[in-house]
Amino acid sequence: MKKDNTIYAISPIDGRYKEIVKDLGPIFSEYGLMKYRFIIEIKYFLAFSKIGVMPRKITKKEVQYLESLIKKFSITDFTQIKEIEKTTNHDVKAVEYFIKEKMKNFSLSDCMEYVHLGRTSEDINNLAYALMLRDGVKIINIKYKEVEKEISKLAKENKKTSMLALTHGQPASPTTFGWEMNVFGERLRYGIKALDSFKLKVKLNGATGGDNALHSAYLKINWRKFSSDFIFSLNEKGGIQFTNNPFTTQIESHDTYRELFDIIRGLDIVLIDFSRDIWMYISRGIIAQIPKVGEIGSSAMPQKINPINFENAEGNLDLANSLCEFFGRKLTISRMQRDLSDSTVERNFGLVFAHTKIALVYVLKGLGRIKVDQNAVKTELEKHWEVVSEAYQVILRSVGVKDGYELLKEFTRGKMVDKDAMYSFIDEVAKKHNLPKKTVEKLKKITPHNYIGNRNF
């Protein structure tokens, strides 16, 4: 019998939801971090080899060999690095030593001392995390766009579906279901646009920000330009872009970490709001949930279909956002030129992406199992003719009835008014104030079903 490694998982991310987030594992795991460090170290060595300070030029065959190491990086490589780390007790140095061993076994033993030359661990780490975040953002951004597409589809399908609005939880001027969904669609599009155009600041400038060692050893090299060029070379078309921050301590100040997690938090807040609204629409009965054969909603109440997909999403979004806020608050502060309390925190970046992706998957599941109950929407509107009092009081005042607002307030405030009562009220006001026939007709044409204003989008 195959051993189930999820049985004793402490976090549901590695247990219950493992299948949903399995594509994030190779990115945010210890393996992922080591892989990205390895990539940066190799790319840095190759960039270093082009500036004329090494004892000889690197051959085309040697370049191809080093590039192949990146493409073939494996669990075996990772395991060997971790074995070296047992002795060094330093993860970045373990990567350096591993690369040197690879070079020694090829034809690069005379150049291997240029691996990691003049760099501090944070130069490698902040660039490794940049690659990690870029790949993680790609995954959740695809899901954000899928959710936006489904919400926008729901909006278009219900563009003309009039619906009772609730402000302060009380019946208010009607809206359309499509309009309400489009509001969420627009909010998501705004956040997605910010994510698509986001730029992350990173650094490559030595132990305390001035490239002291390299400036001392190679006075003629413009190391700031070298760093900027190297960082630019890491960019790919699409996804977040990297820019050089030359003005740092040992660590990059991480203000753009805060900005990135604020964008994610903002998108997640929109979806929390969305999930709660859908939950309440289901509770009101104007959204019907589609039953699934074999499912059970309650162990005691057979009739129930609970909105668990949206509840699950809300909980995971809340978890993700608490971490987003913490990362922004924690990582932008460092004692003097640096302290190491950020290191263990950064290793938890994957939690934000995992909880967010789980939530997005469940929002999509939920959207696939709901539909607007057109009869329920109409029935609810028909019970609340008092909501057109806003239009009536404006029309009455527009034709010279000075106490139009007060008349409607006295008649409707705190009451449920039906069609017959509202028409009787109009007839009484028309008689008392001698309203023109066309004004009475205008008033009676307005119903809770057509009093929706301009809802085009």
From TrEMBL:
The lineage of its organism: Bacteria, Candidatus Nomuraibacteriota. Pathway: Purine metabolism; IMP biosynthesis via de novo pathway; 5-amino-1-(5-phospho-D-ribosyl)imidazole-4-carboxamide from 5-amino-1-(5-phospho-D-ribosyl)imidazole-4-carboxylate: step 2/2; Purine metabolism; AMP biosynthesis via de novo pathway; AMP from IMP: step 2/2. It holds the Pfam family Lyase_1. It comes from Candidatus Nomurabacteria bacterium CG_4_9_14_0_2_um_filter_32_10. Catalyzes two reactions in de novo purine nucleotide biosynthesis. Catalyzes the breakdown of 5-aminoimidazole- (N-succinylocarboxamide) ribotide (SAICAR or 2-[5-amino-1-(5-phospho-beta-D-ribosyl)imidazole-4-carboxamido]succinate) to 5-aminoimidazole-4-carboxamide ribotide (AICAR or 5-amino-1-(5-phospho-beta-D-ribosyl)imidazole-4-carboxamide) and fumarate, and of adenylosuccinate (ADS or N(6)-(1,2-dicarboxyethyl)-AMP) to adenosine monophosphate (AMP) and fumarate. One of its GO terms (molecular function) is N6-(1,2-dicarboxyethyl)AMP AMP-lyase (fumarate-forming) activity. Residues 334-452 form the Adenylosuccinate lyase PurB C-terminal domain. Residues 15-315 form the Fumarate lyase N-terminal domain. This is Adenylosuccinate lyase. Residues 137-164 form a coiled coil. One of its GO terms (biological process) is IMP biosynthetic process. Keywords: Coiled coil, Lyase, Purine biosynthesis. It comes from the Bacteria.
